[in-house]
Amino acid sequence: MGGVNHFSGGHRLRRLAGLFLGVGAGCLALAGTKAAIPEAPRRLTLENASSFWAFQPVKSPPVPAVKDAAWPRSTVDRFVLVKLEEQRLKPVQDADPRTLIRRLHHDLTGLPPTPEEVAAFVRDCGAGAQDSAFRIPHSALASLVDRLLASPHFGERWGRHWLDLARYAESNGKARNMTWHHAWRYRDWVIGAFNRDLPFDQFIREQVAGDLLPGSGPERDARLVATGFLALGPKALEETKRELFRMDMIDEQIEVIGRAFLGLSIACARCHDHKFDPVPTRDYYALAGILRSTQPLYGRGPMGIKCVNDSDLQPIGTDAPALAPKAAEHLQELGTRVQERNDARSSRYRIVRNVADAKTQLKKPGADAVKIEADIAKMEVVIKEWDAKIKTLETTVLNLETNFPPQPAFALAAREAAKPEDSRIHIRGTIENLGEVVPRGLPQVIQVPGLAPIAPGESGRRQLADWLAHPVNPLTARVAVNRVWQQLFGRGLVTTPDDFGLNGARPSHPELLDHLAAQFVADGWSTKKLIRSLVLSRVYQLGSAVDAANLERDPENVFLWRKRPRPLEAETFHDAVLAVSGQLDARPRPGSMVADLPLFKAHELFSFNPQLVETQMLHSHRAVYLPVVRGVLPEVLKLFDFAEPSMALGARDETVVPAQASFLMNSPWLLAQARHLASAVLAGASAGDAEPLEKLFRRTLSRPPSAAERERFLTYLAQPEAPLSAPKQPATAEELRLSHWTSLAQVLLASSEFRFSF
User: Fold this and answer.
1) Neighbours of 511 (CB within 10 A)
2) In contact, 53 and 510? CB cutoff 8 Å
3) Which residues sit opposite 423 in a β-bridge?
4) Binning pLDDT at 50, 70 and 90, where does residue 452 land?
5) Where are the domains of the chain?
6) What is the structure's pLDDT at 24?
7) Neighbour tally for 547: CB within 10 Å
8) Average pLDDT estimate for 596-603
């Protein structure tokens, strides 16, 4: 390499240079190639933004001609191949059917294929799969893809991608970590939206302004739930300055809207005009006014704060109107009696709380002289009277609990504020130093036609949603298709998926990005159609083998000459382990585990509690239904690069650290699943039978063992000693056999072949 590869890592150097030197960088290309994109200005403003690629209108480019016309299977392939040919790179051989079906299952549903599904797909592909010229029949592949897209597990997999961007969590986070027992409704709405292929423009509108859209009944309720997107962010409930709390919450909402939908860091303009992107401070506070005129509803408040209207409550019996006055009367009477007993002027007795002090006083002369006067008969009457009252109250409580009306359905949501208002500029971002009032409005850098003006009595969220979802907006479709590409290929065409501004990376294939964005809008913003077109392309079907010549010219696979292997995400690994062990309950889990566990009944987490981390031991549903409590994540999620739920995050880290290996070796959860897997493959098999080994490999790796693996594993099974991982010394030959097979199952579950998608 004679130069820096801008598309993969070089942009980090440029970002540092921009931060410290104030210099924006252009597009650096591979050695011996021409820069496809001109040098960018040092700072984007409203005046020069139109010269920057991301703010230019999306135009569908002509499909390029290629030299090897036999290689492409789709238009996508032609855009990729023309770059490969320019760089003198040759794509590697296609993946074999077993590898491809695992890849598709992991990418589209997040679950591994069963041995039966693998066998059926291999059979549909026909003979000759090992031939270098073999091509998987389009009909077999299309049938598989359509089945996976129609699966209810598709929404669980792809909905989880969006939840990373929505910073989904079931607690407030920060110092006062209040739990949210109703956030799960937003999670389920997202899953359902992906399963029914809700058009992405409508997906945006419902999350930003669903409460303002027409609809009734279940449709209206679902759109209210969708606005939970605005309420999910972390909040500093301990903040004593009400205005600062409010502005921090608005700032977080602006940040997530900008990052998730536009790939822009709009919140950087809170204190001053954006240093790099065309977002002046006035535009920030124009948006702030819209959100200031919006009331987020983020959960039942602590200390009994009222959170429902009286009209929403149901009476609790015919005596309901009289219960409150009676309760007040009893409390007043009880308080009077307690005060009389505690009043030193009307009481002959003292309550001594320090026992040691009381003993000292009893040793004084005359301290043992005690005179007790009591009317026993009168005391018995009073006790019986209160006993009768207590029994009556207990009976009333029991009847109320038995006939208690169902609780209303709660959800995190947003609604219009009672009095919409514009925001004042906060000079340097401080609440104490206020500037001029800015009318509610939208960022000026992107002008879209036909938007209704913001009326005095409305927040402006409806206009904001229409502006974000408008087909003329050059960022929305580009950002969306780049995110889909990233999830399927491991890296976006723009490698900074949350930053399409000056500090972000330039697209490696700008024409392909615009082609996909234009087609996405033309196809009605259908996510499933976009995914289908990509996974049926030949570039998606490439194998992951390394070619030395290609590696020398393009070591980071910028130009897509092979499929990049990548580790399974935390949820996919969790679900795959449960699936192959036979312990997965694939049904959607209703409700929230947060609300069910005793740990969360107090609504607030002041410190770490291991009970939450251990919940995966009791949880057999998919990981998307595991509790997401900020700061207290389940171990299997935390160790394997789960997204930080306090910020919009479009790309997770991919780490390989010792703690992961320790988990794979020592986790009681993984050992338990390995034991279940061993028991499943041994069912019905006799001692010395090699068939369980075949089953074990096909369940975990979707292939039979090689001759060398078979020999090595069978040799291990024949040893008389118990494995080190056995929790105790096996008492019988059958227990010893199960221990050996459990160790083998653990080895495969911990293997790179199981934990990576190739």
Assistant:
1) 18
2) yes
3) 438
4) very high
5) 95-165, 166-304+413-468, 570-639, 665-757
6) 33
7) 16
8) 57
10 Å CB burial of residue 240 (0-12, 13-18, 19+) is exposed
Residue that the structure tokens 């669903």 belong to: 210
Contacts of residue 727, defined as CB under 8 A and 6 or more positions apart, other chains included, come to 671
CA dihedral 223→226→228→230, nearest 10 degrees, is: -100
Task: Name the nearest CA neighbour of 162 among 648, 492, 572, 612.
Answer: 648
* φ/ψ (deg, to 5) at 542: -65, 150
Cα 476 to Cα 491: distance, rounded to the nearest angstrom: 18
CA 564, CA 638: separation in Å to the nearest integer?
24
Which of 64-78, 87-101, 293-307, 412-426 bottoms out in mean pLDDT, i.e. has the lowest? 293-307
Give the C-alpha distances (Å, rounded to integers) separating 71 from 273, 368, 543: 49, 107, 14
Q: Is the pLDDT of residue 248 over 50?
A: yes
SS3 content of the chain, % helix, strand, coil (to 5): 50, 5, 45
Query: For residue 546, what is the DSSP state?
Result: -
For residue 153, pLDDT over 50 is answered with yes
Residue corresponding to tokens 């040759």: 90
251 SS3 class? helix
Q: Is the pLDDT of residue 602 over 60?
A: no
- Distance between start and end Cα atoms, the chain: 26
Cα gap 594→581, rounded to integer Å: 26
When pLDDT is averaged across residues 206-230 and rounded to a whole number, the result is 97
What mean pLDDT is predicted for residues 287-292? 98
Three-state SS at 177: strand
Mean pLDDT of 639-657: 96
What's the Cα-to-Cα distance from 40 to each of 47, 205, 501, 509, 515, rounded to whole Å? 14, 33, 11, 17, 23
Q: Please, what sign has the CA dihedral across residues 548, 549, 554, 558?
A: negative
Provide the residue type at 553 as one letter.
R
- Give the residue-averaged pLDDT of 103-119: 99
Find the mean pLDDT for residues 526-535.
99
CB-based burial, 440-457: b 16+ in 10 Å, e otherwise: bbbbebbebeeeeebeee
Q: β-strand 604-605 against 177-178: which pairing, if any?
A: antiparallel
User: Do residues 489 and 229 lie in contact, with contact meaning Cβ atoms separated by under 8 Å?
Assistant: no
Query: Nearest-CA neighbor of 652 among 180, 10, 165, 245?
Result: 165
At 170, is the secondary structure helix, strand, or coil? coil
Regarding predicted confidence, which is higher, 618 or 367?
618
Extract the runs of DSSP E, i.e. beta strands, from 550-633: 566-567, 604-605
**What does the DSSP 8-state code read for residue 34?**
-
560 Cβ contact partners less than 8 Å away, ≥ 6 residues apart = 80, 83, 84, 91, 489, 539, 542
Q: Has residue 185 got a pLDDT over 60?
A: yes
CB 739 within 8 A of CB 722: yes
Token pair of 620 as six digits = 């057999």
| DSSP label at residue 73 | S
**Cα(52)–Cα(37) distance, rounded to whole angstroms?**
10
CA distance 280 to 388: 72
What predicted TM-score, i.e. pTM, was given to this entire model? 0.84
| CA-CA-CA-CA dihedral for 700, 701, 703, 706, to nearest 10 | -100
Residue 647 near residue 628, CB atoms below 8 Å: no
What percentage of the chain carries pLDDT values higher than 90? 68
**Cα gap 327→323, rounded to integer Å:** 6
- Nearest CA to 489 among 512, 521, 520, 506? 512
Question: Beta-strand (E) ranges in 392-449?
Answer: 413-416, 423-426, 434-438
| pLDDT for residue 343 | 58
Q: Which amino acid is at 420?
A: P
| Closest to 568 in 3D by CA, of 481, 647, 642, 664 | 642
Q: Say yes or no to pLDDT of 732 above 90.
A: no
